[in-house]
Every structure is written in structure tokens, then in C-alpha cells.
């Protein structure tokens, strides 16, 4: 850690687990919403068929998040942004907890649950600032429907964000991957790119993942416990 000049961190749902955010996989089976698995209700197909139902699911998740706060893993990562020559934080989480902990630049690979975007134009709004609970909300610029600004199953990542994160990953000398099952692509490729470009790769996850064997160190502990121990 002390020798590292450029650090790249990829986080997943496990980093928010200790804040009370349910993970997608592991720990007692996949979550269901009104009988639908999360990859059905959170899919591009469902947004095309029934956008209000997708809004209802994301409203439910936002309601859960409202009372939750960042944990020591988020706080440690926020401190690291000022400790290294270059520090990059990329996350698959949409909960905004890295920002809430004070991280200034976060590569949000899967979007942000607190943001909505217009289906037709470039307009984006903070959902908390919408005046009506009408679902879907209508764009104040063009009047078309708005949708949650998150990546749904069957969709590509927002343009540019993966490429920028990949370029940072390939330039780092230490890569830490925390709280992700490393099953969802292309995010799961980022630590692989880092390692192939010569970085030392560390995983923080109480369970082993497909990435564990490939890592230089696999720390089988919770992120909120182990990341503060790596702090200096
Ligand atoms: P997953 O739910 O797939 O995996 C969570 C991982 O966190 C598991 O490997 C757990 O072992 C680990 N974990 C649990 N508690 C932990 C803790 N306290 N500290 C560290 N690790 C812990 O979550 P992701 O890998 O983030 O995409 O899932 C990737 C994507 O799949 C999500 O972004 C989401 C989902 O489809 C979209 O919604 C587009």
C-alpha cells in the first residue's frame, strides 16, 4: 500500500452490505419482487413492456436506501482519494453511498438509482427533486417519459464510462476488488485488465469468486472490517 502510486478500486454490492443494502447474489438466494427475479424486473424488456412497474421496483429500493448510511469501507475509500498520486474508484453499485461518504470522482458503471433520464432527450434529474410521484415522470424539457438512469439487464453500459475506467485500470500498480461476485461483465474484466498490465491484485470478499485464484491476495473478510485495516 505504501509503495503504490496508482490505485484502482472496483466495488460491488458487498461493499454496501454492511450498510444494510441487500446483495444480488449469495446469502440466501436471489431477491424476488412481486414474484419476479431481479434480473426480470430490472430488465430492458420490462422497461419496454411496463415502465411503471420498473419505477415501482426502483422506488421500493430507494425507499430502503433512504435511511441507510455509508459504512467504514466507503469511508476508507473516500480517504484514499487523497493518499495516492492517482486513485480511481469504479463501482457497480447504484446506491450513491460512495458519494455520500465523500468520494468525489466515482465511475458509476451501472448508473445511479437517484437519477432519472429522459427516454428521448439528454435531460437528467435527481429523483428527489421531482415534484410529482407520477410514474413514469415526464421530462420537463420534451414531455417524454423518464426512466431510472441505471443499466438494466440487456443494456450496454453508459457510453465512455467503461473505457475510461479500463484505461485507469490498465495504468494502476495496485488493484483492489471488493464486494463483488465478479460474475457480471464487462465490470468483472477491469481487475483482469489491471493484473494483465502488471498490477498487484487484491480481492476483499468473505466468499471466494471466479477471480480469487487469479489474485495475488484474496482477503476473505468483510470489506468494512478489512479496508480500514489497510488504511495507513
Ligand atoms: P453480487 O450480489 O453479485 O455479489 C456480492 C458479493 O459481495 C458476493 O461475492 C459476496 O460474497 C460479497 N459480500 C457480501 N458481503 C460482503 C462484505 N461485507 N464485504 C465484502 N464482500 C461482501 O453483487 P455485484 O458483484 O455487485 O447490476 O453484482 C454485480 C451486478 O449484478 C450489480 O451491479 C447488478 C447485478 O445485476 C445491475 O443492476 C446492472
Write out the distinct hetero groups bound to the structure: 2'-O-acetyl adenosine-5-diphosphoribose
Count of helix runs: 9
Mean pLDDT across all amino acids: 94
Classify the helix fraction into a percent range: 25-40%
Assigned CATH class of the largest domain: Alpha Beta
Rg for CA atoms: 18 Å
- Total number of distinct structural domains: 2
Order of helices and strands: EHEEHHHHEHEEEEHEHEEH
- Count of individual beta strands: 11
Note the gap between the termini.
8 Å
Strand order of the largest sheet: 5-4-1-9-10-11
* Biggest sheet statistics: 6 strands, parallel
Class by SSE composition: alpha/beta
CATH topology of the largest domain: Rossmann fold
User: What would CATH call the homologous superfamily of the largest domain?
Assistant: TPP-binding domain
Binned strand content: 15-25%
- CATH architectural designation of the largest domain: 3-Layer(aba) Sandwich
Name the overall outline.
globular
Residue stretches low in confidence (pLDDT < 50, at least 5 long) are none
Query: Based on the structure, what is the oligomeric state of the protein chains?
Result: single chain
Amino acid at each position: 500500500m505504501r509503495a503504490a502510486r496508482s490505485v484502482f478500486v472496483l466495488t460491488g454490492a458487498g461493499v454496501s452490505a454492511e450498510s444494510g443494502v441487500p446483495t444480488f447474489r449469495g446469502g440466501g438466494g436471489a431477491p424476488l419482487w412481486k414474484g419476479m427475479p431481479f434480473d426480470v424486473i430490472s430488465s430492458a424488456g420490462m422497461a419496454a413492456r411496463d415502465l411503471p412497474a420498473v419505477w415501482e421496483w426502483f422506488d421500493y429500493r430507494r425507499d430502503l436506501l433512504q435511511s441507510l448510511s455509508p459504512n467504514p469501507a466507503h469511508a476508507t475509500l473516500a480517504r484514499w482519494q487523497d493518499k495516492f498520486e492517482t486513485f480511481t474508484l469504479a463501482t457497480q453499485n447504484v446506491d450513491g453511498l460512495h458519494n455520500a461518504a465523500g468520494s468525489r470522482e466515482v465511475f458509476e458503471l451501472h448508473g445511479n438509482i437517484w437519477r432519472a433520464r429522459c427516454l428521448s432527450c439528454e435531460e437528467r434529474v435527481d429523483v428527489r427533486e421531482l415534484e410529482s410521484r407520477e410514474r413514469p415522470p415526464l421530462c420537463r424539457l420534451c414531455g417524454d417519459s423518464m426512466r431510472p438512469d441505471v443499466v438494466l439487464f440487456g443494456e450496454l453500459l453508459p457510453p465512455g464510462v467503461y473505457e475510461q475506467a479500463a484505461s485507469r485500470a490498465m495504468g494502476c500498480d495496485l488493484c483492489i476488488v471488493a464486494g463483488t461476485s465478479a460474475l457480471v461483465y464487462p465490470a468483472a474484466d477491469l481487475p483482469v485488465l489491471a493484473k494483465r498490465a502488471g498490477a498487484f491484485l487484491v480481492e476483499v470478499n468473505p466468499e471466494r469468486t471466479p477471480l480469487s485464484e487469479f489474485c495475488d491476495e484474496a482477503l476473505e473478510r468483510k470489506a468494512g472490517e478489512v479496508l480500514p485495516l489497510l488504511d495507513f
